Amino acid sequence: MKDFEPDFFSKISTGSTSSIPAINSKVKEIINDEFPFLSEIACIEQMPGLNINSNNVKLTLVDGKFLLKSWGSLSPEKINQICNLLLYLNLNGIITPTPIYTQHHRFTIKRNGEYFTLFNFIDGEIFQPKFSDLSFYLRSINYLFLALEAFDGDKNSTMAPDLEFISRTLVNSVSKNSSKLYSIFSHEFDDLHSLTQRILIDIDKFSKIANVSEKQFSHFDLHPKNILELPNNKYAFLDFESCLYSDPNIAWGYTLIKILRQMMVISNGDLKPNLAGAHALNEINKQEFATRLQVENLPIFGRIEIIRRLVLIIDQFEKFNSQTWLPMLPIQIQTLKESYLLFPTE
Fold it and tell me: What angle do CA 152, 154, 155 make, to 5 degrees?
């Protein structure tokens, strides 16, 4: 894969597919039992996703459009915190899916050990960032994180990279003899091997700058498919299962790399990566939330988050032969490689 070629996150389709009869029956039962105040369902469509969890369905009713989200086996306590967070953000002017209370005034619906919540459906386009969009996007996540800063939720739900685990897994995985994945992704692992020294330097730097900034609730998965572009330079944010009490530098660093990476894809070579990176850091410094961030170190924080995800994929395969997230492995390595083009190291 060449640098800044389209990948999974570059696909802009938000289209839906026809749902199967078994899902239709379950959905109709849930709506009839829990939301009798809604009108009759006109259309049920299964929503595409990462091809990992495609149990979410879009409902079209006379009352409007809704999304019935499957939480799988996520605990009701966690679901309620996410729903309360979404209500809080909406009240603070942040556009997110709004959970709908059932007739029993609750958010969770249980069916055969699986939990569901009904949300309003947000019509928007998957974010395809252009250079001219960058300041508007950064302003939007500035407001998002200012709102999240004041949210009073369960601070036991935390996320922090395990540097020892990351380093050990990384060093082991780049050895051709120790990784079973090398035969599948030989080219990608060669790229990873070439990056190892720079990654280890970043890990060392991260160990010195981590835990300096104040933690808060942070959405650490703001990639293009979790952002909807709305009219008038506004954005809606999705997937608040990825919002935990953590260092906001990690979240900002990760979205910075993912958004700039997609911006480079769209530019078709008209942008120089290092200039795009420098411009983005300058724009972040203009935001109010910048006073809570280590702006100059955001590329390091972002790379550590990419590496954390990468080594988890490797570890799950090596230990449990889990192939669920394997399609993301080449994307993580490529994004990591490109991050050094966006933010060159000395």
Answer: 90
User: Two tokens at 207?
Assistant: 């160990």
| Secondary structure E strands in 172-283 | 216-219, 227-230, 234-237, 243-246
For tokens 């090398």, the residue is: 182
How far apart CA 285 and CA 296 sit, in angstroms, is: 9
Tell me 153's DSSP state.
-
User: What are the angstrom distances between the C-alpha of 298 and each of 11, 208, 250, 340?
Assistant: 26, 14, 7, 12
Contact 248, 213 (CB under 8 A): yes
Structure tokens at 274: 């290092």
Residue 116 β-bridge partners: 70, 109
Predicted confidence (pLDDT) per residue in 172-209, tens digit: 888 765 667 888 899 999 999 999 999 999 999 999 99
Q: Is the pTM of this model over 0.90?
A: yes
At 251-276, the pLDDT tens digits run 999 999 999 999 999 998 899 999 99
Domains and CATH numbers, the chain: 8-123 (3.30.200.20), 131-342 (3.90.1200)
Give the whole-angstrom CA distance, residue 13 versus residue 231. Answer: 17
